[in-house]
Amino acid sequence: MTPGDGAWRALSPEDLAREYSPSSMVDSMDAELDVYAAASTAARSRHPHAEHAYGPGARQRLDVFHPGGDSLPGPVPVLVFVHGGYWQAESKERACGAAPDVLAAGAAYVAVEYTLAPVASVAEIVAECGAALGWLVAHAAELGIDPARIHLAGSSAGAHLAALLTLGDDALPGATIRSATLLSGVYDLRPLVPTYVNDPLGLDEPTAWHLSPLSRIRASDAALVVSWAECETAEFRRQSRALTTAWRALGNRVDVVPDVPGRNHFDLPLDLADPATALGRAVRRLLHG
């Protein structure tokens, strides 16, 4: 039996669709997303940042915020954030709400954008995020970032992508992924196959498992922070616990920040480096480590 088998297979397709709908846990998903987007808009208006292309595609772009502003003194550690949206929504412009706290911690903040499904497959999205990371490493000197102090982070589908980047087989010469902060992620994609989420993704179960971080767990020097909100479905909680268990079983380092009070699936990323929160303090320890 592979990790995660059993619990989700007992659920009907209707139950799975509900469990993998974070909107079922909030009064208004649109209102929650508006708060998330407003925090990003405020960060982008207050802090200098530069957009760069890491590939030829229209959405193969990333934004770099540096704690030194336009002067780019460095090199400094960098937190690379991958947005969620079930691989089919959202953008880097709406994913910068945590940038001010990361900058205040003395690190650079990078928001990565990628081609969305169904234009791109999940495998192609993973490859694009890997290309973005490679571009950052290749241009680290001019960006004022330290390729030996790369910290990844992502929320929901972005947590899936950040986890796969951390577990990737492709080495980045001269670079080190020091940590990954994974928020409310999906680490086994197989339960999504019979749900509406899969309509634009077109995954079958073998492909879904191949693209699942839980299928690729290995010994790693990277530290994890795994967190989920108080207002999450049972399946999102189970996914995070399954990843934590598998990661720890290999002796890897992981700090768990569970059931964050007052937060839900959509606004948890706003705590990402906030020193007033348990999640923010855990992330800052990694950035300063």
Run of helices and strands:
HHEEEHEHHEHEHEHEH
Which residues form runs of ≥5 with pLDDT under 50? none
- At CATH level 3, the topology is Rossmann fold
Number of domains: 1
Estimate the strand proportion: 15-25%
Shape: globular
Q: How many beta-strand elements?
A: 8
The portion of residues assigned to helices is 25-40%
**CATH architecture level-2 label:** 3-Layer(aba) Sandwich
Content-based structural category: alpha/beta
CATH superfamily membership, which one? Alpha/Beta hydrolase fold, catalytic domain
The first-to-last residue Cα distance is 37 Å
Overall pLDDT metric: 94
Task: Please give a structural write-up.
- With 289 residues, this protein is an alpha/beta fold.
- The chain has a single domain, classed as Alpha/Beta hydrolase fold, catalytic domain (Rossmann fold, 3-Layer(aba) Sandwich), CATH 3.40.50.
- The protein is 33% helix and 21% strand.
- It has 9 helices and 8 strands.
- An 8-stranded mixed β-sheet has the order 1-2-4-3-5-6-7-8, with helices on both faces.
- Strand 3, helix 3 and strand 4 form a beta-alpha-beta unit.
- Helix 4 packs across helix 6.
- The longest helix has 18 residues.
- It is globular, with a radius of gyration of 18 Å.
